[in-house]
Amino acid sequence: MALCATLLISSGQVLAQDAATYSIRNLTVDTALKAAQVALKTCRDNGWQVAVAVVDRSGAVQVLLRDRYAGAHTPRTASGKAWTAVSFRSNTGALVDLTQPGKAQSGLRNRKRPLIPILS
Predict the structure, then answer these.
(1) For the whole model, what pTM was predicted?
(2) CATH assignment of 26-110?
(3) Exposed/middle/buried for 33, CB within 10 Å: 0-12, 13-18, 19+?
């Protein structure tokens, strides 16, 4: 240990320690709202009545929009899908094959997500 420290000091190298804090960037509410509005318009243009959720990095809902005739289940479905995408850092479409019945990850389809408050 002393030899290692001596070599680092004598060669002029300094070991970087892990930072005690870190910074992250999140969307502003205005930007999240604009993204949700564009998604809702795209769905309307395709003839779909949906709910759209935008979540932050922790999965907490920033914006939730439900179109007039979208089903009562769509807000929870939209926020759950957004939470899944952020928690797996993946498009949910990429998880379809991995979570089919009989596959090792199939249990993910029935996993209950933790209670995350919808922020206003």
Answers:
(1) 0.70
(2) 3.30.450.150
(3) middle
